[in-house]
Design goal:
The complex is a heterodimer of chains A (308) and B (321). Chain A is mostly helical. Chain A is built from eleven helices and two strands. Helix content of chain B is 75%, strand content 1%. Chain B is built from 13 helices and two strands. Classes of the chains: A mainly alpha (308), B mainly alpha (321).
Chain lengths: 308, 321
């Protein structure tokens, strides 16, 4: 067995998991607290990448790009909440799906109008562009940065949610929204903040990933589905659940892509294993979600007080 | 004139069906074969929308994975044709049986969940179908597969000419509309609609709502597979793209634009959707922006879709007369 390959793949899985967590944590809060399905959450991911890319091209500073990008996506999220999402909380889920589907079209076309059809490459500063040696293993510095940033945001979010008054309100809202309202909390402001915070975290995921791939049209539309899977598997409204589920799904996805064909070779002839492996590895996360929904619909780590 | 429908909306729908029946002659007369193609595509999607409306509108089961059955129907034409089996009855039997078994299996699991969870699990199953077809290297994988000849029904109207295929589509559409009408007015449909309004009450009355829902889900999937079969024949090309979750989202929109839980809503909704798509995309490449704004506005401010607006006409004329 190639241990270097294994370690590299584990790091890739961790990286994907943490990016998924950035997307899913906001999604699960919006889902859990406002009971709002936001299919257009992936658009914030895309917008973040484009904002950051534009600022980096203008100023040459990656840090400035991230900071300005975060503020920008936070503002876009706040606008969407104030003028569109807020009117929909009382409606049923079908309306949420429809409106946010329309929003995806709108955001994709706006990005197309503003930045053109081709993708946007985001240059990395030289410091981050190198490799770090770990024994016989060479790892790209930037991957480590992503992992570090993901863990840092997870830690900050943990402190925010578990240790502050605002976090207490957020947790209370996820368990019982009506009760929080009845206790006199300004629920409009809380919703606005949670929505915009979620948007900013999705944007951050886009900014972090874009230097590796590039910012492109519709980049959010595939990953949002996986992020929804994370939310469901973790339990709607549960940040802890989103964290574990994101890591599990990131690992499953990465590992099955590289090792599933070898596993299948043990049970079936080579040519079948070669065709079945990619399909099965793409399906594994959905199979996981279907299994969770069938046997434990509240998710693996539901927030306190949620019963189905 | 007793045979005329009593309401304005009824008359509009009757004349729409009449126009659809004459469409091939009209378009041939004005030498616009392109519009017949456009209309054929719209009517195929309308069949799918009618089938989705059965579970979404009448049954309250919001499926974000109905396009999977379009894909299954289309591949049930494409794969036999790949081996030079063009027998239409074979295609039909395959499409109906494969879609029914898949719907029975996934529906039995999905219907254990409700609301948001049902939306997500149907989406998950359709993504699985998507990835299965994506991995079928033999049948073109993501490049898709060309179908060189249409399904053959010896002794029946040939599908080879575009007007022949159009009448097949039109006939299947009429059948599915008629079937839906009979189904929702029968005891079965009453139970389905009743379970949407108040499931506990239906259970208290002694109905096993789960089984009724499952049967409804399977029926809807089978009708939708017919749309897929016709779509495969119409485009002569199948690919996993037919199944993506955005396709399922569009199907929901077609139902919503027309009006949920109404007989003709999905039909007018689909025609409006396809025409809008066609004409907006001819105006500008950025047509998705206009389209998206219209969709958002429709949900926020539109009451009951096109059917809802026509019912308002009915009420106004009833008030005046």
């Amino acid at each position: 067995m190639d241990w270097n390959l294994l370690i590299t793949q584990l790091m890739n899985g961790l990286q994907l998991g943490l990016l998924l967590f950035l997307l899913a944590s906001g999604l699960t809060l919006i889902f859990g607290i406002m009971d709002f399905i936001n299919l257009s959450h992936g658009s914030f991911y895309m917008i973040g990448a484009y904002f950051c890319g534009t600022i980096v091209t203008l100023t040459g500073s990656f840090i400035t790009g991230i900071v300005v990008g975060l503020v920008g996506v936070f503002a876009v999220g706040a606008l969407v909440e104030r003028f569109i999402a807020r009117n929909l909380y009382v409606r049923d889920h079908l309306d949420h799906v429809l409106v946010t589907f329309g929003l995806i079209l709108i955001f994709d076309t706006l990005v197309h109008l503003l930045w053109g059809p081709s993708g946007m490459a985001i240059p990395l500063p030289d410091v981050l562009n190198g490799q770090v040696g770990l024994g016989s293993l060479e790892l790209p510095t930037y991957r480590l940065v992503i992992i570090f940033a993901g863990l840092l945001v997870a830690a900050i979010l943990y402190v925010l949610v578990a240790k502050t008054r605002l976090g207490m309100l957020i947790r209370a809202g996820a368990s019982n929204r009506v009760m929080v309202e009845a206790l006199g909390v300004n629920i409009d402001r809380l919703f606005l903040f949670v929505f915009a915070l979620g948007a900013a975290m999705a944007g951050l995921a886009g900014m972090l990933l874009a230097p590796i791939t590039e910012a492109s049209l519709g980049m959010g539309n595939d990953i949002i589905i996986i992020a929804l899977v994370v939310v469901i598997v973790g339990g709607i409204g549960s940040i802890k659940g989103a964290f574990y589920a994101a890591l599990i799904i990131g690992m499953i996805d990465t590992m099955s892509r590289s090792y599933l064909d070898q596993l299948l070779l043990l049970v079936m002839p080579g040519n079948y294993a070669e065709t079945a492996a990619p399909a099965l590895s793409a399906m594994l996360v959905y199979i996981l979600m279907a299994a969770v929904l069938a046997f434990r619909p509240q998710g693996l780590f539901p927030p306190a007080g949620v019963k189905i | 004139m007793k045979w005329l429908p009593a309401t304005i909306s009824g008359r509009i729908y009757a004349s729409l069906l009449l126009m659809l029946a004459c469409a091939p002659f009209i378009f041939e007369w004005v030498h616009q074969p392109f519009y017949l193609d456009l209309l054929s595509r719209a009517l195929i999607l309308a069949i799918a929308a009618v089938s989705l409306n059965l579970i979404l509108g009448f049954g309250g089961m919001i499926s974000l994975g109905h396009a999977a059955y379009i894909g299954i129907g289309a591949y049930c034409v494409g794969i036999p044709s790949y081996y030079d089996y063009y027998d239409g009855w074979l295609h039909l039997a395959l499409a109906l049986s494969v879609s029914a078994s898949f719907a029975l299996l996934t529906g039995a699991i999905s219907l254990r969940t409700k609301g948001v969870y049902f939306i997500m699990i149907t989406m998950a199953f359709s993504q699985m179908v998507y990835f299965i077809f994506l991995s079928l290297e033999e049948y073109g994988a993501d490049d898709g597969l060309v179908i060189y000849s249409r399904s053959e029904f010896p002794g029946w109207l040939s599908m080879d000419s575009s007007s022949g295929l159009y009448y097949w589509i039109f006939a299947v559409l009429l059948l599915s509309l008629f079937f839906t009408h009979r189904l929702v007015h029968a005891r079965f449909g009453r139970v389905i609609v009743g379970a949407r309004h108040n499931e506990q009450r239906m259970q208290a009355l002694g109905f096993n709502t789960y089984r009724y829902r499952l049967a409804c889900y399977v029926i809807s999937a089978m009708i939708c597979s017919l749309a897929g079969m016709l779509l495969g024949n119409f485009t002569g090309f199948i690919s996993p793209d037919m199944i993506g979750w955005a396709r399922s989202g569009e199907l929901i929109f077609m139902v919503i634009i027309g009006g949920v839980a109404t007989l003709f809503g999905p039909l007018v909704g689909t025609i409006a959707f396809v025409l809008l798509e066609e004409f907006l995309s001819a105006i500008t490449v950025y047509w998705h922006l206009i389209f998206g704004v219209m969709l958002v506005a429709l949900v926020l401010f539109g009451k009951g879709g096109i059917h809802g607006w026509m019912s308002m006409l009915d009420r106004r004329s009833a008030d005046n007369g």
